[in-house]
Specification:
The protein is α+β, with helices and mostly antiparallel strands and about 475 residues long. It has three domains: about 5-230, HUPs (Rossmann fold, 3-Layer(aba) Sandwich), CATH 3.40.50.620; about 255-325, Chorismate Mutase Domain, subunit A (Up-down Bundle); about 340-465, Phenylalanyl-tRNA Synthetase, Chain B, domain 3. It has helices at about 5-15, 30-40, 45, 65-80, 90-100, 105-120, 135-145, 150-155, 170-180, 200-215, 220-245, 260-265, 265-280, 290-300, 410-415; strands at about 25, 50-60, 85-90, 125-130, 160, 165, 250, 255-260, 305-310, 315-320, 320-325, 340-345, 350, 355-365, 375-380, 390, 400, 410, 430-435, 435-440, 445, 460-465.
Length: about 475
């Protein structure tokens, strides 16, 4: 076992972001970092308890023959490593034009949508990307330049949903040395040298300048700072979730906030509660100025304006209550057609008036008996991303029920097989993960992607509590 593969294995085992028995799909561009990641994960010591489901290559259609050569290279690499390969050809430029975003942003969206689809369709349990410690340092500087709080300065996380980054503790130079020792070639993307791109200017100009004139260890310093910010951000997020349950109330058509309670909270908590409320109702991103304006409205008492507009929504103050409502012509939050949609974190609970029940979520150690169906289920904490979404059935929904070998089934067909009456299907709560899709059809079945395996330790337990109501 190489020293580098030993370090990667230590990182995986320390952070537990790739569970044992997991099938991992490696995102491979053909560049040095992704080739090294594929080769490392295919080493016997790293494949002992986990398996490489294959390589995933995305041809963005941006560089003509060069992009086709990248694809050919990745196909050959898969043959050398003796693993399958999935190749997806996409039109990134068209996506950028249609959404009026940069080509880089469009490519990022397409790749992560593809990662989600691969996991949802059962190609793998996780997708691994080759982000390095150098990428982490660049990301922290980029976000600092653009303006960011603790969440932004936390940088690239080792895992978000079904996407894992096993190389965040490894320098890019170490990967190149590994490739040299293994005799493995890789592709060079000329666009990585284009200094019209801000990240490239940070990589090729700013970081070398900081290393030469301020700190030779600047990359490690920035990566360490990101780790500290990440831990702080996680703690603040838990505290903000708990306080939001006390400050915010769901109402017909929007949210109500207790202005006095919001004002009494430390700014770090109040800002998160305010941002989450505005974004949920308005369904648009909000910035620091929007959040501060809402906090001033909460704090100003009788001298405050009666109302103020925010992205996608309007806030009106009535006594000590801030009423957040969507702008006219926009649907009510939490409702899709005649259905419902609510966020669920853990620990926490959500009341689904439409179904006459609550779903409570709790964190805990591994249960004595794994639960996969009924009114209480256990999900693997390491493989789900919070908050979850609890929503109603939508046309076209698919589900991978546990026990079907990973095969997908239309939710409509699942309801028919389970003999769920047609008039009841619209109020059966679906618990949805951003990356895994539907993880639990409440009261009926857990998905294959959220199954508990023997080596999973932490769990999130979901429980149905009957309350009565519209359902």
């Amino acid at each position: 076992m190489s020293t580098l593969s030993h370090r990667v294995l230590q990182s995986i085992d320390r952070d537990r972001f790739i569970p044992r028995d997991a099938r991992v799909l490696v995102a491979c561009s053909g560049g040095g970092d992704s080739v090294a990641l594929a080769a490392l994960l295919c080493e016997p010591v790293l494949e002992t308890d986990r398996s490489v489901a294959g390589l995933l290559h995305v041809n963005h259609g941006l560089r003509g023959a060069s992009a086709d050569d990248d694809e050919t290279f990745c196909r050959q690499l898969a043959r050398e490593l003796r693993v399958p390969i999935i190749v997806e050809r996409v039109d990134v430029a068209a996506r950028a034009r249609s959404e009026r975003i940069s080509v880089e942003a469009a490519g990022h969206r397409i790749r992560y949508e593809l990662f989600e689809r691969m996991v949802r369709e059962g190609a793998a349990d996780l997708v691994a990307t080759a982000h390095t410690r150098d990428d982490q340092a660049e990301t922290v500087l980029l976000r600092l330049i653009r303006g960011a709080g603790p969440a932004g300065l936390a940088g690239i996380r080792p895992r978000i949903g079904a996407v894992v980054r096993p190389l965040l503790d490894i320098r890019r130079s170490e990967l190149r040395e590994y490739l040299r020792l293994r005799g493995l070639s890789h592709r060079e993307d000329a666009s990585n040298r284009d200094e019209r791109v801000l990240r490239n200017r940070v990589r090729h100009k700013l970081i070398p300048f900081l290393a030469e004139h301020f700190s030779p260890a600047i990359t490690d310093v920035l990566a360490r700072g990101a780790a500290i910010a990440r831990d702080d951000d996680d703690w603040i997020e838990v505290a903000a979730n708990a306080m939001a349950d006390k400050i915010v109330q769901c109402t017909e058509g929007g949210l109500d906030m207790d202005a006095a309670l919001l004002t009494a909270e430390p700014p770090a908590i109040a800002r998160r509660v305010a941002r989450r409320a505005l974004e949920r109702v308005g369904e648009r991103g909000v910035g620091f100025d929007h959040v501060e304006r809402l906090r001033r409205l909460a704090d100003a008492g009788g001298t405050a304006p009666a109302s103020a507009d925010f992205p996608g929504c309007r806030v009106e103050r009535s006594g000590s209550t801030l009423r957040i409502r969507r702008r006219p012509g926009r649907a009510a939050p939490g409702v899709v057609g005649e259905g419902f949609q609510y966020p669920l974190t853990a620990p926490g609970e959500v009341e689904i008036v439409e179904a006459g029940l609550r779903i409570a979520a709790a964190r805990g150690g591994r249960p004595a008996r794994l639960v996969a169906r009924g009114d209480v289920v256990a999900l693997p904490a390491a493989r789900i991303s919070l908050p979850l979404t609890v929503r109603s059935w939508r046309p076209g929904d698919v589900f991978r029920p546990l026990g079907l070998g990973g095969r997908s089934k239309k939710l409509q067909d699942f309801f028919v097989d389970r003999k769920v009456p047609r008039e009841q299907r619209g109020i059966v709560p679906l618990v949805v993960d951003d990356h895994l899709g539907i993880v639990w059809v409440a009261g009926h079945a857990v998905s294959e992607g959220a199954r508990m395996i023997d080596t999973d330790e932490g769990v999130v337990t979901l429980k149905i509590v009957k309350t009565g109501g519209l359902g």
